[in-house]
Design goal:
The structure holds two protein chains of two kinds. Chain A is α/β, with parallel strands linked by helices. Chain A folds into four domains: about 160 residues, P-loop containing nucleotide triphosphate hydrolases (Rossmann fold), CATH 3.40.50.300; about 70 residues, no CATH class; about 30 residues, no CATH class; about 325 residues, no CATH class. In chain A, about 65% of the residues lie in helices and about 5% in strands. Chain B is α+β, with helices and mostly antiparallel strands. Chain B has a single domain, classed as Ferrous iron transport protein A (FeoA) (SH3 type barrels, Roll). In chain B, strands 1-6-2-3-4-5 form a six-stranded antiparallel beta sheet. In chain B, strand 4 and strand 5 form a beta hairpin. Classes of the chains: A alpha/beta, B alpha+beta. Chains A and B meet through helix 3, helix 11, helix 18 and strand 9 of A and helix 1, strand 3, strand 4 and strand 5 of B. Strand 9 of chain A pairs antiparallel with strand 5 of chain B.
């Protein structure tokens, strides 16, 4: 849908009649802590969809969208969550860089209303940076549920900026926000922060000195929208981005009049000197000063009822009862909270949590994805719909219309684009992936994943990961490519690398997992062997990697969002959007594989490749025919698994062979897309090293398993 | 640390040494790792804030103001609480 562009003052695109996305449109940037609902607000404002979940770190990338607000069209930019202007993890740095590089006409600082006290400090930082700011108090419903009251006009008065309350998931307050945005930009002057925070007489001279040195000469173009005071503060805290900025300034001709070398030298000296005069780390000092300021404001505008403030008084029945009668209607709300509290304590219980996890896995993953979707649905689609009606019809039609055998082979042959690529993608992969994403979305939206992180942290520590890594690992069961991107939320390079290796090696993605579950589900013993081997691999390689790779052991800090009831609409939209994404990614690769195989067959290369792969195939005890399964596996391991499904269907493999093939294929690199993502996140060398390790290792494991099973005389 | 009224004396202990379901006040954060310090503070775990320890196993779970946090023993050892 194209909207005509209207910029009343023609200032945004210099009078041109058409604006293109990202060029010239006035921008709105959403900033805020993780898991406060920025993406949900982005969706509500832009009418497009970006993933929304209930855990910190859902968005690890910047998302762009468009929205028409009042008379104007805007570009809306959603950012990964950040806790403060001074980033700690990689995805925070993504947002910080954006703030340095973009100049938007409005910045929306999105906070969780309930946690105003904690998040207002960041608002003050953004105001220090002199960004034109609107404060959005999101999740007002949850704050109200807890009896928290916020005086919005008063808060707006104290901060000197507009403040709007919203419930973005339900679209409440969005109109008010839009009005605030249009009024704000109409005023067209960035409101300056009224209260300047005083960081104390000891450090202020340093802040001002650095700020003064950063002052550009009159005509110089200032390369950022962030105020020099904010940059000065970041420099004193030795922030990397701020120094990169200094570096850029040095290279900007005419930024400083003449002696620019002297200026930057002087700044570095000041930073060193400042860090010496303070007993504590400067970021500690700054944060405490800001928080003091925040506390002053919060005391004036926010009321938190006793019970909510201090849950530990729960033991004291009297205090509780009095509080309950204090507020009308709060009793049902409280019992709601109590109920979710009870479930919560089971989910994270060191003993009860484990059976709870297995129940979720059994019903969600095994029964729904494995047995129902990958079994019943796929069976019906593949054998009845495609095998019985569509494929014979299409094949017959095609044969009669196109009399060339080579083309017939390309489209409707054994590995044809239609008979193989399209059939696999629609009849096999799509239902499984869809079912998985449905279950996964529900789990995600309840807030179970951070709880799983808490539960498994001490176990994950043994393999060099923290409980935080649970999130990308579980996501990896959906799609390794997505999960590889999410490893960004992990704190150390070492942890990101280990997570990446394990994702590539031992976490099967849903498509593959579904097929394997359905192939092996006929024989529980096979499934158990497969499961144990993959689990052992996961633990063993993680353990070895954590021993071999240099760096510090990971630490674990994770915010625990409340358990929430998933919204059906969000789950459906999310599942659909993931399926859509997945399908678009899978289909071209499948088609490409069909085409390559076709070319390979024409030129004889296919036969040659098969001959080569036959060696390791036979070596791990499989019939030579199984070589093409592994050849497909190089494209995508689920494609290989689909081939395995075919062989299983025609009864070509024994039970042991099936398990060995399934294990080998599970350990393969996930797919070309995941490989590309690894290159992007870890660099080419690392990506190559990972795959150079994985392929031989997969066959090696297959060999070991086959040898052991044979030696034990197991028949499955 | 010297406290004037011995019968009212507040002891300062790490979060690890605290009993579950007890509430105290964060006294200070002590770590040589500036990254961890920054992270804790940015997440709102600040001196002066009341803190309630909810459980110690499988990991440490505590509440500051309106938010719950899960941390490992290592981090819990950096948080000093007076109670």
């Amino acid at each position: 849908m194209k909207l005509p562009v209207t910029c009343p003052e023609k200032e945004c695109c210099c009078g041109k009649t058409r604006c293109t996305l990202g060029k010239g449109l006035p921008k709105i940037i959403l900033i805020g802590n993780p898991n406060v609902g920025k993406s949900s607000l982005f969706n509500a404002l832009s009418g497009s969809y970006t993933l929304v979940s209930n855990y910190p770190g859902t968005s690890v990338e910047i998302t762009h969208g468009k929205s028409r607000i009042g008379e104007r069209e805007y570009e809306i930019i959603d950012t990964p969550g950040m806790y403060s202007l001074l980033p700690v993890s990689e995805e925070e740095r993504v947002s910080q860089l954006l703030l340095f590089e973009e100049k938007a006409s409005v910045y929306l600082h999105v906070v969780d209303a309930r946690n105003l006290r904690r998040m207002l400090s960041f608002t003050l930082q953004l105001l220090e940076a002199e960004l034109p700011l609107i404060l959005v108090l999101n999740m007002m419903d949850e704050a109200e549920e807890r009896g928290i009251e916020i005086n919005i006009p008063e808060l707006s008065h104290y901060l000197g900026i507009p403040v709007v309350g919203t419930v973005s998931s339900e679209g409440k307050g969005i109109e008010e926000l839009k009005t605030a945005i249009s009024e704000f930009t109409l005023e067209n002057n960035a409101q300056k922060f009224r209260q300047k925070i005083d960081y104390g007489s000891e450090i202020e001279p340093y802040i001002e000195a650095v700020e003064g040195l950063l002052d550009p000469s009159e005509e110089a173009e200032i390369p950022t929208g962030i105020s020099r005071r904010a940059i000065s503060l970041l420099m004193l805290q030795e922030d990397r981005t701020a120094f990169e900025y200094l570096h850029r300034v040095e290279k900007t001709p005419g930024y400083w009049d003449e002696n620019h070398e002297k200026n930057s030298e002087e700044i570095r000296k000041l930073v060193k000197a400042a860090s010496k005069i303070s007993e504590v780390h400067l970021s500690y000092l700054f944060t405490l000063k800001r928080q003091k300021h925040v506390n002053g404001i919060v005391e004036q505008v926010m009321e938190i009822p006793e019970r909510s403030k201090n849950k530990s008084s729960g033991k004291n029945g009297k205090i509780r009862a009095e509080d309950d009668t204090g507020k009308k209607g709060s009793k049902t709300q409280n019992s709601n909270l109590d109920f979710s509290e009870k479930i919560d304590s089971i989910l994270i219980h060191p003993v009860l949590g484990i059976p709870a996890l297995f129940l979720i896995l059994y019903f969600g993953l095994y029964l729904f994805v494995g047995v129902f979707a990958a079994g019943t649905v796929v069976d019906y689609l593949e054998n009845t719909i495609f095998g019985g009606y569509i494929n014979p019809f299409v094949t017959a039609k095609f044969m009669s219309l196109v009399p060339y055998p080579a083309l017939q082979d390309l489209f409707v042959g054994e590995y044809g684009i239609f008979t193989q690529a399209v059939t696999y993608a629609i009849a096999l992969i799509l239902p499984i992936v869809g079912a998985f994403f449905l279950v996964f979305s529900i789990i995600e939206d309840t807030g179970y994943l951070p709880r799983l992180g808490l539960l498994l942290d001490s176990v994950f520590k043994k393999i060099g990961l923290s409980g935080r890594a649970v999130i990308p690992m579980v996501l990896g069961f959906g799609c390794s490519t997505m999960a590889t991107m999410v490893t960004r939320t992990l704190e150390t390079k070492r942890e990101r690398l280990i997570a990446n290796i394990l994702l590539a090696l031992a976490i099967p993605c849903s498509a593959q997992l579904g097929i394997i579950l359905s192939i092996l589900s006929g024989n529980p013993e096979s499934l158990l062997i497969w499961f144990i081997v993959i689990l052992l691999e996961f633990v063993l390689i993680g353990f070895l990697a954590s021993r071999v790779l240099p760096g510090e052991a990971p630490t674990f800090i994770l915010e625990m969002p409340p358990l929430r009831k998933p919204k059906i609409s969000n789950i459906l939209v999310k599942t659909y959007s993931r399926m859509h994404w997945y399908f678009l990614e899978v289909l071209p690769l499948f088609v490409l594989a069909s085409v390559l195989i076709w070319i390979g067959k024409l030129t004889g290369l296919f036969a040659l490749a098969l001959k080569i792969i036959e060696y390791p195939t036979v070596w791990i005890g499989l019939p030579p025919d199984a070589a093409d399964v592994f050849l497909f596996g190089f494209f995508r391991r689920d494609f290989g698994a689909a081939g395995l499904y075919g062989m299983h269907d025609s009864g070509l493999l024994t039970g042991v062979q099936l398990v060995v093939a399934a294990i080998t294929l599970t350990l393969f690199m996930p797919c070309i897309a995941q490989f590309m993502m690894t290159i992007k996140e870890r660099g080419f060398k690392t990506a190559l090293a990972i795959s150079g390790f994985i392929f031989p290792f997969a066959f090696f494991t297959g060999f070991i398993v086959n040898t052991i099973l044979k030696a034990l005389g197991v028949s499955l | 640390m010297v406290t004037k009224n011995s019968h009212l004396s507040l002891k300062t202990i790490t979060l690890c040494a605290m009993e579950p379901r007890k509430t105290g006040k964060i006294d200070h954060l002590e770590t040589k790792n500036p990254g961890i310090l920054q992270k804790l503070m940015a997440m709102g775990i600040l001196p002066g804030m009341p803190i309630t320890l909810l459980r110690k196993s499988p990991s440490y779970l505590f509440e500051v103001d309106q938010t719950r946090y899960a941390v490992d023993r290592e981090i819990a050892n950096h948080i000093y609480v007076s109670c």
